[in-house]
Specification:
The protein has 277 residues and is α+β, with helices and mostly antiparallel strands. It has nine helices and ten strands. The N terminus is likely disordered. It comes from Chryseobacterium herbae.
């Protein structure tokens, strides 16, 4: 469950960007502190502005890792995965000196040339860059595979939720089982619902909204806020020329299809029966 939740955090780009931004900002601060300690050990001068500028290397991971994760979700090929890692590493080390040159050009008296910064990036950050992109690729691939392995197929979930029979009460409080396929339609009768069965009408303690999630969408369709109908018992339907429809069931019952449900109704009916002009 924890893996599933973590994966869905990564699926949200805003959460993903925020997570990387915070993590890499901390790494950037740590890098500046290490620079300070190194100057103290070497008895040299520490310039916070320059340390801050060159530590911006870590901030570039945020957008590039987001792009990497997006591409990982789209591919299952290991060769393409290795190409994604290699491209991310090359892009990072190439963009970094451009980024430093641009910032120093705007905010600093001295502009740091591209070649000098590129050499510095290769020397100081190559191994770290390879480790970050490689490990993140492995971690996210494992998370994705774990979720896909444990996630039930949509068809399986639907089957688990679908009912084929119902227990109803007779007048003498006798409980009987009726088959869902023999039900013509359900109608609202707050706080209950009416079950219009081929034999008689039953009262049931439930709501149409709750019942709708338990019925097979291949067999039943919502036609009105007060009605759910069995598609297999519909023998005709006719437009009212205002977006609504009248349907006739096999027991000669006529019901109205509200315009709010008309599109879904026609789609399901036409998918079940061959239609012609």
């Amino acid at each position: 469950m924890a893996i599933h939740q973590l994966y869905h955090v990564f699926k949200d780009w805003r959460k993903l960007f925020f997570f990387f931004g915070c993590s890499l900002t901390v790494l950037m601060m740590v890098n500046i502190y290490l620079d300070y300690l190194l100057t103290q050990l070497q008895s040299s001068s520490f310039y916070f502005s320059e340390s801050l500028l060159f530590s911006s290397f870590w901030l570039l991971f945020t957008p590039l890792l987001c792009v990497q994760f997006y591409l990982i979700k789209k591919t299952k090929n290991l060769t393409l995965g290795l190409l994604i890692i290699s491209s991310a590493i090359v892009a990072h080390l190439t963009i970094y000196p451009i980024f430093i040159w641009f910032l120093s050009k705007i905010f600093y008296d001295h502009t740091f040339p591209y070649g000098q910064t590129f050499s510095f990036g290769i020397t100081a950050y190559l191994i770290k860059t390879v480790l970050v992109y490689s490990s993140s690729f492995i971690i996210f691939t494992i998370l994705k595979n774990k979720v896909q392995t444990h996630q039930p197929a949509p068809e399986e979930t639907t089957k688990q939720n679908t009912i084929t029979s119902m227990v109803v009460s007779e007048v003498n409080h006798k409980k009987i089982v009726i088959e869902v396929c023999d039900i013509f339609y359900f109608s609202a009768n707050s706080p209950y619902i009416n079950i219009h069965h081929r034999s008689k009408k039953y009262l049931h303690s439930d709501t149409l909204k709750s019942l709708e999630t338990q019925l097979s969408s291949d067999q039943f369709v919502r036609i009105h806020k007060s009605h759910i109908v069995n598609i297999h018992h519909i023998i005709s339907y006719q437009s009212r020329q205002n977006g609504d429809y009248d349907i006739t069931l096999s027991d000669d019952t006529i019901l109205r299809v509200s315009r709010n449900y008309a599109k879904d109704f026609k789609s399901k009916l036409e998918s079940l029966h061959l239609t012609s002009k």
